[in-house]
Amino acid sequence: MSCDLLPTEVAGPHYQGDVFDVIGDGWDLLIAHPPCTHLAVSGARWFKEKQQEQADALDFVRRLLDAPIPRIALENPVSVISSRIAKPSQVIQPWQFGHGETKATCLWLKGLPLLTPTDVVSGRENRVHRMPPGPNRWKERSRTFQGIASAMADQWGRV
């Protein structure tokens, strides 16, 4: 089941609301993608102006990592999670999973193995970072690449 404050974009079971409404419902695996707006080092120049927002975001991450679920993967770009909570278990790139893109993605893992690359490709470019401004830029930049999502489902769904 997916869970988000936003409506789902694909068919399937989806809970629209606060993840903590359903986090204690007996799940055996959580793959969390908390918002990076106040965490990612790409926005470091604004950190001084949004200290409370960052503290709240870090508290949200801590609560996800402390959830009563035996297997947890938390995904975020290079962020202050590394210096304020813990170093990531692994840093992956889309080009390791069939996409010719660079976008360092950190994984904090609990009860899960490291993700194994499935399709290393060449021709790498930083398309995500260079997206033009627009009302949906935040949403497009935060998308998980299908190759990474498939690897997570295939490799961690069997654990």
What this model shows, in words?
This protein is an alpha/beta fold and 159 residues long. 22% of the residues lie in helices and 16% in strands. It is built from 4 helices and 6 strands, in the order E-E-E-H-E-H-E-E-H-H. The protein has helices at residues 51-65, 81-84, 137-141, 146-156, and strands at residues 2-4, 14-16, 29-32, 71-77, 90-92, 105-110. Strands 3-4-6-5 form a 4-stranded mixed beta sheet, with helices on one face. A two-stranded parallel ribbon has the order 1-2. It starts with a strand and ends with a helix.
Radius of gyration: 16 Å
Number of helices: 4
Kindly report how far apart the N and C termini lie: 17 Å
SS content category:
alpha/beta
> How would you describe the shape?
globular
Topology:
Layout: E1 2-4, E2 14-16, E3 29-32, H1 51-65, E4 71-77, H2 81-84, E5 90-92, E6 105-110, H3 137-141, H4 146-156
Parallel strand pairs: 1-2, 3-4
Antiparallel strand pairs: 4-6, 5-6
Structural key phrases:
single chain; 159 residues; alpha/beta; four-stranded mixed sheet; two-stranded parallel ribbon; 4 helices; 6 strands
